[in-house]
Amino acid sequence: MSVSLSRYLVEKQRAKGHITPELRLLLEVVARACKGISHAVTKGALGGVLGSAHSENVQGEVQKKLDIIANEVLIEANEWGGHLAAMASEEMEEIHVVPNRYPQGEYLLLFDPLDGSSNIDVNVSIGTIFSVLKKTSTGSEVCTQDFLQSGRNQVAAGYCVYGPQTTLVLTVGDGVEMFTLDKEQGSFILTHENVQIPHETQEFAINMSNMRHWDAPVKRYVDECLAGTEGVRGKNFNMRWIASMVADVHRILTRGGVFMYPWDKREPHKPGKLRLMYEANPMSWLVEQAGGASTNGVKPILDITPTSLHERVSVVLGSKAEVDRITAYHTHPEH
Ligand code: AHM
Ligand code: MG
Predict the structure, then answer these.
(1) Which residue ranges form the domains of the chain, and what is each CATH number?
(2) Residue of 261, 267, 314 to test ligand 1 pocket, by largest number of atoms within 8 Å of CB
């Protein structure tokens, strides 16, 4: 018998009291929005949704039409339900406070509405990444400061990958589950329970074209992988780079591996390319919940206290043995 996402969430709420009714509603609404985005993505050129929107987001990146559509779908779906106080998005400079005409809840929703923007027009997997926090301050109007909590405070996190299948991957702090969209029934069905990342791997993911800009520990790690059976690792490695973090992380959750988007010398004042709160935190929590690890090179990403909404971070995540090795190359380079 198949278990829908709705049933899974109801049972989580009932049996373990693990999620509140408001959080259940929030996750249902996010999933519904992802279905809408999946639909828009699938239409492609037929829906007139491909190409540039000829605008820039707060990070100075050119927005694609689908970036904006996905952002609007998420905002519109989530603002009236009464479960949220505010939202923050990679595509919006400021937080979006739930308008006065709707009741305000205690949760905060953060998202990268469409991750992997460079892949939209070439029909390669893209996705939505989301993270849920709880507003800790009471009484006062919700503000940006409420969002600046470490990833350890997340109460739910996940992503939806729009690939050959549309798959929603979720954690509420009790393991990781995957749900595949049954497009005929219009519902997400539980297809992988208690996802576990293999401890060791022979596969790495990094944009090799940036190699000359990397720092020594990352270069050392990749050089050792490339040396294969003749090098210190004594085994051959395979490489994949999809340029959609959702798709790369999905592969790692499915068959193991390590993903890296490290700091590099192209823009030395930036800690990395990826965003801490919309990308790194939710993915790091999923990976940890699946038995993997995540670091910025020196400390677990989930332990970082953000100082601004759009903060960037260096990211290494995936199979624990590899992440521990890369961390050691940063912290004890002499060994
Ligand atoms: P985006 O949120 O604007 O799509 O940027 C994030 C993406 C990640 O999904 C991916 O890992 C990375 O950027 C790819 O970057 P690059 O094109 O430098 O390889
Ligand atoms: Mg992104």
Answers:
(1) 5-192 (3.30.540.10), 203-331 (3.40.190.80)
(2) 261
Mutate to test the pocket of ligand 1, among 111, 214, 244 (most ligand atoms within 8 A of CB): 244
- CB of residue 262 inside a 6 A radius of ligand 1: no
DSSP 210: G
pLDDT tens, per residue, the chain with 335 residues = 899 999 999 999 998 677 999 999 999 999 999 999 999 999 988 888 788 877 777 777 778 889 999 999 999 999 999 999 999 999 999 999 999 999 999 999 999 999 999 999 999 999 999 999 999 887 778 999 999 999 999 999 999 999 999 999 999 999 999 999 999 999 999 999 999 999 989 999 999 999 999 999 999 999 999 999 999 999 999 999 999 999 999 999 999 999 999 999 999 999 999 999 999 999 999 999 999 999 999 999 999 999 999 999 999 999 999 999 999 999 998 87
Q: Is the alpha carbon torsion for 237, 242, 244, 250 positive or negative?
A: negative
**Beta pairing class for 107-115 and 84-89:** parallel
Q: Which residue has the tokens 């720092």?
A: 215
